[in-house]
Amino acid sequence: MTKNILIVDDAAFMRMMVKNILINDGYNIVGEAENGTKAILKYEELSPDLVIMDITMPEIDGIQAVKQIIKNDPLAKIIMCSAMGQQGMVIEAIQAGAIDFIVKPFQADRVIEAVKKVIG
Amino acid sequence: MDISQYLQVYIEEASEHLQSLNVCLLHLEKEPDNRLILDEIFRSAHTLKGNSGAMGFKKMQNLTHEIENVFDAVKKQKIVITTYVIDILFRSCDAIDNYLNEIIKTGSEGNQEYKEIIGKLKELSLGQYVESNKVKDKDIIDEISIANIDDGAFEYNEHEKKVLKEAQNMGMNVFTCTVLINKKCLLKTARAYIIFQTIERYAEIIYTNPKIEDIEDGNFDFQISTTIVSSEEASIIEKEIYSISEIEKVKISKLNILDDTLESEKIKENNTKDIDINNKVKKHNKHKIVKTVRVETEKLDVLLDLVSELIIQKTRLEEIIDMANNEEYAESLDHLKRVTTNIHDAVMKVRMVPIETVFSRFPRMIRDISKKTGKDVEFIMTGQETELDRSVVDEIGDPLIHLLRNAIDHGIETAKIRQKLGKSAKGKIFLRAYQDGNNVVIEIEDDGNGIDIERVREKAIEKNPVDEENIRKLSKKEIIELVFNPSFSTSDKVTDLSGRGVGLDVVKTKIEYLGGSIEVDTIYGKGSKFVIRLPLTLAIIKAMLFKVGDEPYAIKLSSIQEVVLISPEKIEKVGNQEVIVLRDEVIPIIRLCEILESYMPNSYINLMTTIIIKKGEKFFGLIVDDIMGQQEIVQKPLGKLLSGIEISKSATILGDGNVALILDVNSII
After folding, report:
1. Which chain B positions have a beta carbon within 8 Å of A101's beta carbon?
2. Are B358 and B321 in contact (CB under 8 A)?
3. Of A84, B56, B132, B639, whose CB neighbour count within 10 A is largest?
4. Are A101 and B246 in contact (CB < 8 Å)?
5. Which residues 6+ apart lie within 8 Å of B422 measured at CB?
6. Shortest distance, CA B216 to any CA of chain A (angstroms)
7. Do A100 and B187 touch (CB under 8 A)?
8. Are B335 and B321 in contact (CB under 8 A)?
9. Residue-wise DSSP of B430-493
């Protein structure tokens, strides 16, 4: 069964890159969002199998969004995208309920590995 | 009895035998029925076994014993040599290599068991191998690459011991759990956090190595060892940890902490009492017995430094004695000159090492890569006996590996394509080393598809659209030079072997750092040839001294073709460049006084002294003011403060105490 993924990042370029990597490996991108608020709404609407979310975003940032999404759905699976210097925030996101993280710039095989481990 | 004195000899001999095993296996692959090679391998394995046993290295002994058994079975014709068999044997050699490295580092074999490989060896020797068994190469590879889980990492304090003992008494499981994080992980601490979070769902963590604070600060390599207490089974915890990304390996073992003989230090295998020392170590009968002495490289460096100083003083004396005009002095000086030259040559020879030490690992590497990329390659090496200074040898390995990988990855086409093109299905890669004057030349040549000049040109235009017109005018040689630019790769796919576009410029930088140069020639469709030139002698060189203006300068004699006198009328102009015609060739000339901004006070110029420089196949002329003569000089690097000067990287102190800059001809044109 095809797995549905929601991609959240304020940079359209980033969303496109992740989308391409995932589509190439057979996943379905069920939606995109460019900030935390929209992410929470889209999650309600689409109930994706997995969310891939950037940590730093305008409006509500990644960590707040994780907290809210997990509150609404404790079984939500979220993978955070971070840059090199954001180790502290990554740990905060994991504490808030995110399940894994990937570091920018992305290696396609690393993204696929992380997604596979979470939703297969 | 103390066997540590034999450790050094053991290591040297074991390394030699290992090298022999690798070389023989490569031959065996091509000639599976060659009895001589079989005997050689059997002998090497047998000797290794004996030596290892004598030193108390039981694991090594066991492994080599199994290898010996396999060859026994081969000799008795119970099994046939196939690629599968060769692969297992190569993996066994890697295991021996790992043991050896551990012994070199710590004096003991370490704790790796390599059960998988030993199992497969046993299977082979008992003739139980069935052709249809698919090799789980991944398992074996995993075993080898994870040789670095350090098992000796557990040292508990009193409190921790007490807690662990209580837990075990209550019937709980006590485990040691070591996790190896993938070395490519960029945020180790975050990864460690997830690991701990996961473990804590099933167990309590009593002890960690490194300490939690160190892990939080990122002060750890990629291994985290813990001791945990849990009511769950090890397999469940192991499975959960493996479900985390970027985990390379997990090792969970039950710990019986109530057993009083628990030692927290690493057990040194070679302290066991029942060692029977066999003093007669068998010598490998192919190599002639050469008496050697181990010398620290630093001592050699000091020696070379002193010789350099000696030569400077000799040159000084030459000057003084010249002026004194004394027969006796001059004679003595002559002797001194001869002796210093001899000492210099002798010291340089001591530092010289045959390039074979670098080349020897290549055949095996090429074999592995060609298997990995599915390309059929014949690898021909010549000139391994060519000698190089040992510091150069240490550094030249990496660039060569990169070039060889490039040749297979990007150069040689697949057998199918080659056949379509009318080429032989097997690609050829040549690695040649030879001496040429004052240089050692290393060539890497392949008969693959060469470099697509036009593609490089297009790429260059892509990156610099402004220069399109000029780029179109560049000659083939100039376009080829571009491949050495950073961020220049014409490969569409980034393979993990090479091709990220950062390779060739790093290679060039490294080679230039060693005082050498690299050039490439290519014919699209036919192949490429990389030519690396490295200087033989580092510090002391023969040079031509000359004056520009009032100042002395020097240029390496090996770069100089000849010195001519030219009259000013013969100078012509081609575009903006001044040239002369020398024996039918047009040679650009450069007035050094302009570049160095050092002018002669009087402007009466009759015939101009011109040094003709040879750079590869090109020539150019440097106009100077006076030739001082040829001399052996000591090259001293200019040092960090002056490192920005393009035209000169080193200088020398002349006999009269003045400093002469040594000009780098590569930077003039």
Report:
1. 187, 190
2. no
3. B56
4. no
5. none
6. 10
7. no
8. no
9. EEEEEEETTEEEEEEEE-S----HHHHHHHHHHH-GGGHHHHHH--HHHHHHGGGSTT----SS
pLDDT > 70: what percent of chain B? 86
* Chain A residues with CB-CB distance to B193 below 8 A: 91, 94
Q: How many CA atoms lie within 13 A of B449 on its CB side?
A: 16
- Cross-chain Cβ contact A82/B189 below 8 Å: no
Separation CA B487–CA B505 (nearest Å): 8
Residues A80-88: contacts with CB within 8 Å, 24+ apart?
A80/A53, A80/A54, A80/A55, A81/A9, A81/A14, A81/A18, A81/A52, A81/A53, A81/A54, A81/A55, A81/A106, A82/A54, A82/A55, A82/B187, A83/A55, A83/A56, A84/B186, A84/B187, A86/A55, A86/A56, A87/B187, A87/B189, A87/B190, A87/B218
Residue B240 sits at the chain A interface (C-beta within 8 Å): no
At residue B285 the predicted structure's pLDDT band, cuts being 50, 70 and 90, is very low
How far apart CA B85 and CA B474 sit, in angstroms, is 53
Q: What pLDDT is stored for residue B140 in this prediction? A: 43
At residue B421's C-alpha, the angle toward residues B416 and B422, to 5°, is 100
* Residue type, position B652, single letter: T
ipTM: 0.92
- The beta-carbon neighbor of B190 closest among A91, A114, A117 is A91
Of the pLDDT bands very low, low, confident and very high (cuts 50, 70, 90), residue B147 is very low
B264 — pLDDT class (breaks 50, 70, 90): very low
Contact list in A for residue B197 (CB cut-off 8 A) is 94
Of A82, A84, A117, the CB nearest to B243: A117
Is any Cβ of chain A less than 8 angstroms from the Cβ of B246? yes
* Mean pLDDT score of chain B: 80
B444 confidence band (pLDDT: 50, 70, 90): very high
Facing A117 at nearest CB: one of B187, B197, B245: B245
Query: Containing H/E element for B65?
Result: helix B58-75
pLDDT at residue B443 is higher than 60: yes
* Strands, E assignment, B337-376: 352-354
Mean pLDDT value of segment B428-437: 89
Tell me if B553 sits within 8 A of B623, measured CB to CB.
Answer: no
pLDDT in tens, B610-641: 999 987 678 899 999 889 988 877 777 776 67
CA dist B564 and B114 (Å) reads 70
Give the pLDDT of residue B346.
Answer: 84
Q: Quick one: pLDDT band at residue B273, thresholds 50, 70, 90?
A: very low
The secondary element (H helix, E strand) that includes residue A5 is strand A4-8
Query: Residue B223 is encoded by which pair of tokens?
Result: 């291994």
Q: Considering only CB atoms, which chain A residues are within 8 Å of B189?
A: 87, 91
The Cα B210–Cα B225 span in angstroms is 7
> Of A84-88, B38-42, B272-276, B353-357, which range is least confident?
B272-276
CA distance B666 to B669: 6
